[in-house]
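Side project, low priority. Logging it here so it doesn't get lost.
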Amino acid sequence: MSTDLSDREFDIVCWGATGFTGGLVVEYLLEHHGLKGLRLALAGRDRNKLEALRDRLTAIDVAAAELPLLVGDSHDRASLDAIARRTKVVCTTVGPYAKYGEQLVAACATLGTHYCDLTGEVQFIRRMIDRHDEAARASGARIVNCCGFDSIPSDIGTYMLHRAFEQRGGQVQRVRMFVGETKGGASGGTIASGLYIADEAKRDRSVLRTLVEPYSLYPAGEPPGRDKRDQAGVRKDDDLGMWTAPFVMAAVNAKVVRRSNALLDFAYGRDFRYEESTSTGPGLKGLLGAAAVTAVMSAAIPALSFGPTRKLLEKKLPKPGEGPSREAREQGFFVARLIADGVDASGDLMQLRGRVEGVNDPGYGETAKMLGESALALAFDPLSSPGGVRTPASTMGDALLERLRAAGMTFRVEDRA
């Protein structure tokens, strides 16, 4: 039976509010929604830092001076229980999630508290499914991973195209997503998560299998579909008219999309296929760009695993708590193109195209927007999805799609030209 959240003290608690991305999420909520009608609390492990953050936030909204502060520790279950039982939703930016995230998931799953995060750590998601999905289903807690640039453009973009086919009386069968023009920086938190994944994969070969297996986030017992491993080399997509290369986050995004399909009772079909890559443009310039991206991708994992290069990268790259400036974030953007194949109401082949765009740095400005709107959807929208360890599309679907459009993101469907 789902937990009654009507008497909870807060609507949303931002866990990790004093971190780089956590602060951006809180700023987004204040700048775009304000505190009228939103019972928000800031949470973290250092009260002094929380107080300093609250003081800074008064420049956005003087009412922020009254924001409640909650103190806890990622490895202290009692402190996390105390936070989770006071709120409808916990919105967390504390990573690497495989290192710091499980006790919070466990608290929320047990207490019926909805949860959203920014993880791109497939091995963490798989563990949370195995260990906490049953408790979340029983309590009604919606545990929603990947609510940022990983993997909302992929997951909600595919859902949008599924709905477009459905509205035309047809059925989507295959979606290809191409991440194209992009400008953005990396924060120390994202880099720390990537390094932690590399360390876990080096220690435990099962982690590597989870990372590369196309259906590793499928519900237990479901037979795999037709997709193979993610693109590893240079290809030309004739429908798109561009050269393509591997996309670094396809390893999580594609698995999330496939899990959404399964959790939506295979609304996209049991033979549904999903692929994701980087598009580098047409002609010789596009070919050379695809070759360069492929070369960098091929060198990245060995560089992270080899001691001397790993140490050099750690010295050069941003540290946790660091990230691009406001000016850099506002100059960022991303464009993703989707091509969906399926059949129309008569069973004839039909192709639709989609476009997803963000007007800020994808990993920070747009990610703060996507996570903030996900938390608001979980707190306020009349969702029909059950509890469990879930995905954005299978949990918030139409509600999140409309929220993101209203927040300034582009999610657009086009008939084939």
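Brief comment: DSSP finds 15 helices and 14 strands in the chain.
Revisit when time allows.
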